[in-house]
Design brief:
Layout lengths: L9 H30 L6 H8 L5 E6 L1 E3 L2 E11 L3 E4 L3 H5 L4 E3 L7 E2 L4 E5 L2 E6 L16 H12 L12 H13 L19 E2 L2 E2 L24 E3 L5 E6 L15 E4 L4 E6 L1 H4 L7 E6 L4 E17 L3 E10 L13 E8 L5 E5 L4 E2 L5 E5 L10 E11 L2 E6 L10 E7 L3
Parallel strand pairs: 8-11
Antiparallel strand pairs: 1-24, 2-19, 3-14, 3-18, 4-13, 5-7, 6-12, 7-8, 9-10, 12-13, 14-17, 15-16, 15-18, 16-17, 19-23, 20-21, 21-22, 22-23
């Protein structure tokens, strides 16, 4: 039966309130449970928190033993400098006359060889000779001795007529006259010298003949060309470059130790400097090429020496000095303030060798070296230290000779470092 209009229905109100209350209870229960789900994972014991704070366990970084040819090319800047210098000093005979320098026909950069006129003293020429000893007397007609032997050897090497008998005979005097004339001078005429050093006398390994080869042409001459002792200064054998002329025109030569000239006694060299670590990888004999930007030419070089201590090298800076010798004619020294490009090729054995990265090498306190073969957790094998003899470090790789080759074949996985990264 239908309810009367306007009649209240209290039981429906009650049911709606009950449902609402139930929903609130359920919501509170679910919220509490959700909070528990969110909070629960973050609840840790003190031991768990301490363990989580530790860094990850270290793991090895590995590489492999490779079969390779070790080679590397490096580029550096260097200079060309003059070789070792030597001083040319007057002979005692020249200094004894206290002459005045009247002309200096050579200058820095001039090339001189035995027979070159290096200066004039009191208007007379002074010649460079590569003799074992300076003349101890004026060599005049009939002079016999090892000083005459030296003169005759020089005349013969320069293409002048001469005897080779240790006597200043007419034939030798003729060659000596031509020697002077070719240099723009007239040979001085000396008296007769009947003295001799004695049969079989030796000076610096030169033997004076007991008898002359041709007595008829070796008789003392009443004149003829002679060579004053003051006309000779000594230089090393070979071609040399004058690096400095010391006495000027008008100077007096009074001391035998007073330098007349400085010569480049050795060939020009290329010089560079390196840091100690890089220099340790270089060795004498390593090949290089220098590019001379002054004329766009290339010159083969090889390392002749590598220093051990840092030093200041003018023109290139401070570091370990590396000296290169030229395999051929050396270019002129570089001007101050300029450098040239040098490419160095570092090579080990031309055949492939067993090699490892340099970071795989470890040293023991006794000085021996070893490589660590990495363990394999899957097979249960442990790491193994293998003693090796290392070669040169070339391009970050080192050739090795394992004491136990069976334990370190090519392809072995080796430890080159450790990491904590996950």
């Amino acid at each position: 039966m239908a309810a009367e209009p306007g009649t209240a229905r209290p039981h429906r109100k009650y049911r709606r309130g009950t449902v609402a209350l139930a929903l609130c209870v359920v919501t509170l229960i679910l919220g509490a449970a959700g909070g528990t789900f969110l909070i629960a994972p973050q609840l840790k014991t003190a031991e768990q928190a301490a363990a989580d704070a530790l860094p990850p366990a270290a793991r090895p970084v590995t590489a492999s033993v490779e079969q390779r040819v070790l080679t590397e090319q490096t580029v550096l800047r260097g200079i060309i400098s003059a070789g070792d210098s030597t001083s040319v000093v007057p002979s005692a005979a020249l200094a004894a006359t206290s002459p005045v320098v009247t002309a200096v026909p050579v200058s820095a950069g001039s090339s001189i060889t035995p027979g070159t006129t290096v200066l004039e003293a009191n208007g007379e020429p002074v010649f460079a000779m590569d003799w074992n000893f300076a003349p101890y007397r004026d060599i005049t007609g009939g002079s016999r001795g090892p000083d005459v032997v030296q003169l005759q050897d020089t005349l013969a090497e320069l293409g002048y007529a001469t005897s080779l008998n240790g006597v200043l005979d007419p034939l030798t005097q003729s060659g000596l006259s031509m020697f002077y004339a070719d240099r723009g001078y007239t040979a001085p005429v000396g008296g007769t010298d009947n003295t001799r050093a004695g049969p079989g006398a030796k000076i610096s390994g030169t033997v004076v003949p007991d008898t002359v080869a041709d007595p008829e042409t070796s008789e003392p001459s009443s004149g003829g060309a002679s060579l004053p002792a003051a006309s000779v200064v000594l230089i090393p054998s070979g071609l040399h470059t004058v690096t400095q002329v010391l006495p000027g025109v008008g100077s007096y030569l009074t001391e035998p130790a007073q330098p007349l000239l400085r010569l480049n006694a050795g060939a020009n060299v290329a010089v560079a400097v390196l840091d100690a670590g890089t220099a340790a990888t270089y060795a004498a004999g390593d090949e290089a090429v220098l590019t001379d930007s002054r004329d766009d030419t290339e010159h083969p070089l090889e390392i002749s020496s590598v220093g051990t201590e840092p030093t200041e090298v003018p023109g290139v800076g401070n570091g370990i000095k590396v000296v290169f010798s030229f395999r051929g004619t050396a270019p002129a020294p570089t001007p101050e303030g300029s450098t040239l490009l040098i490419r160095v090729t570092l090579e080990g054995d031309p055949e492939p060798v067993a090699a490892v990265p340099v970071t795989a090498l470890y040293a023991r306190s006794d000085g021996t070296s070893f490589v660590t073969v990495a363990g394999d957790p899957q097979t249960g094998t442990d790491s193994l230290d293998v003693t090796v003899t290392p070669g040169r470090d070339i391009g970050g790789w080192v050739a090795i000779d394992a004491q136990n080759a069976e334990s370190l074949p090519v392809g072995s996985i080796i430890v080159v470092g450790m990491t904590h990264e996950q």
